[in-house]
């Protein structure tokens, strides 16, 4: 058990008997009232977010969490296969566990798996990845008065909006949180 004041972003707590990750934390001391800690948490099992408020001296149950970096190897009919770079052990996850992360996975991509109480709970990507554009139609000349964008398909099959000057075969940086174009790589 820890005080609510001791919580930090990225820690894992138990709330309503479910493990949750602390996404944001704000310490508040309003006027003549008692101080409190406002949290935004994401439940690990469901992925849903919630606002939680604790008194600054309330006790919070921490959950045992382990983070391990693994490398993506390949996908087949049985699922997605990763390799632990330290032990060379193969770890497999089914498609439902991988979820939206699959749109950014390329061979040898390093991801972080979050183990809660010894069980794999989620995969986390780096904030940006570099991907190759496989399909991108030509832009229309003279259509550049504003920040005009066109559709492009990446090597993983994900479609995103890119500026008109991006051509097939170029490597671009993509934000993994919202899937937006960040620039050339």
> How many distinct folded domains?
3
Q: What series of H and E elements makes up the topology?
A: EEEEEEEEEHEEEEEEE
Structural class: mainly beta
Ranges with pLDDT <50 over ≥5 residues?
none
Alpha-carbon Rg, integer:
21 Å
The count of DSSP E runs of length 2 or more, i.e. the number of strands, is 16
Q: What is the annotated CATH architecture of the largest domain?
A: Beta Barrel
> Mean of residue pLDDT?
88
CATH class of the largest domain: Mainly Beta
> What oligomeric state best describes the polypeptide chains here?
single chain
> How is the main sheet built?
5 strands, antiparallel
Beta-strand content bin? over 45%
Overall, the morphology is flat
What is the H level of CATH, i.e. the homologous superfamily of the largest domain?
Answer: Nucleic acid-binding proteins
- Helical run tally: 1
Explain the overall architecture.
A 5-stranded antiparallel β-sheet has the order 9-8-7-10-11. It has a 5-stranded antiparallel β-sheet with strand order 14-13-12-15-16, with no helix packed on it. Strands 2-3-4-5 form a 4-stranded antiparallel β-sheet, with no helix packed on it. The protein contains 1 helix and 16 strands. The chain is mainly β. It is flat. The relative contact order is 0.13. A hairpin with a 7-residue loop joins β3 (18-28) and β4 (36-43). It has one helix at residues 95-98; strands spanning 2-3, 12-15, 18-28, 36-43, 49-55, 59-60, 65-76, 79-83, 90-93, 110-116, 119-124, 128-135, 149-154, 159-163, 171-175, 181-184. It has 3 domains: 2-60, SH3 type barrels (Roll); 65-124, Beta Barrel (OB fold (Dihydrolipoamide Acetyltransferase, E2P)), CATH 2.40.50.140; 128-184, Beta Barrel (OB fold (Dihydrolipoamide Acetyltransferase, E2P)), CATH 2.40.50. The protein starts with a strand and ends with a strand. Helices cover 2% and strands 52% of the residues.
């Amino acid at each position: 058990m820890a005080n609510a004041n001791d919580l930090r972003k990225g820690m894992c707590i138990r709330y309503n008997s479910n493990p949750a990750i602390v996404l944001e934390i704000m310490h508040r001391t309003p006027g003549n009232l008692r101080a409190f800690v406002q949290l935004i948490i994401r439940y690990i099992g469901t992925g849903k977010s919630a606002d939680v408020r604790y008194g600054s001296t309330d006790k919070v149950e921490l959950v045992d969490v382990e983070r391990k970096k693994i490398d993506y190897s390949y996908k087949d009919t049985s699922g997605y296969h990763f390799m632990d770079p330290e032990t060379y052990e193969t770890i497999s996850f089914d498609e439902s566990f991988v979820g939206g992360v699959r749109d950014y996975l390329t061979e040898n991509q390093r991801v972080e798996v979050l183990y809660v109480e010894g069980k794999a709970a989620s995969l986390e990507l780096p904030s940006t990845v570099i991907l190759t554009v496989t399909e991108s139609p030509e832009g229309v000349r003279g259509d550049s008065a504003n920040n005009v964008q066109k559709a492009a398909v990446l090597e993983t099959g994900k479609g995103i909006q890119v500026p008109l000057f991006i051509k097939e075969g170029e490597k671009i940086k993509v934000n993994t949180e919202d899937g937006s174009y960040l620039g050339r790589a």
